[in-house]
Amino acid sequence: MERLARCRVIVFGVGGVGSWCVEALARSGIGHITMVDSDCVATSNINRQLPALTTTVGRPKADVMLERLTQINPDIEAVAIKKFYSAETAGEFDLDNYDYVIDAIDTLDCKARLIQHALSCRCVLFSSMGAALKMHITDISTANFDKVQGCPLARALRQKFRREGSMPKRKFKCVYSPELLKNRQAETASAEGGPAAEAKSHSRSNGTLVHAVATFGLMLAGLVVEAEYSKA
């Protein structure tokens, strides 16, 4: 517990996956948690995101989580950074100040940038792969990035890294699920409106369920706790 209290963790994204990860980290005794998220709570978040309540709609997610963490542990060092991680803002984050980096970003380019950034520092990186369109939590598992199979997001990341000649040299663990459910929005749009409607449908967020994203988040937090336990 003393070792966990000395841990410094930064979590990028406190939405569906990241918010549950942050909650579990705080309840596990992590002493310092920095949360990075520029979004505000929306009504559409209420089905799956921890900070999303009818009373918090419109408020920054990072601020809501900050209040929650201090209620869980008044002694915690919790920081809310209301920024969007990107190539333009990456230089503002000194990841060498942290023991662990949690990647819960769902934007491909920014996710790839964070992975490369974290792997160039002394910290340990744990990354969430795609949690959308997942139903069966028994399929959710962990693996090194190069061993993740059946996840479209992991495949897209590997393709991007190969195309840019920047395939990660260091191994890092991911939480992922090989389960693939049909994108029914796309099917409906294709049937009713042809290619244009299908393209518009793909621009929407895929359906996501709380038990799936929460499991992803809890498993990410578990990887941090397990890593510290293994040092004993």
Distance between the termini: 11 Å
> Can you tell me the CATH topology?
Rossmann fold
**Broad shape:** globular
Question: Could you name the CATH class?
Answer: Alpha Beta
**Neighbour order of strands in the largest sheet:** 3-2-1-4-5-7-6
Number of helices: 7
Provide the helix percentage: 25-40%
> What does the main sheet amount to?
7 strands, mixed
β-strand amount: 5-15%
Secondary structure: number of strands: 7
Radius of gyration from the alpha-carbon trace, in angstroms: 18 Å
Helix-strand pattern: HEHEHEEHEEHEHH
Proper CATH architecture:
3-Layer(aba) Sandwich
Total domain count: 1
Which superfamily, in CATH terms, is the homologous superfamily?
A: NAD(P)-binding Rossmann-like Domain
- Let me know the average pLDDT: 91
* Structural class by SSE content: alpha/beta
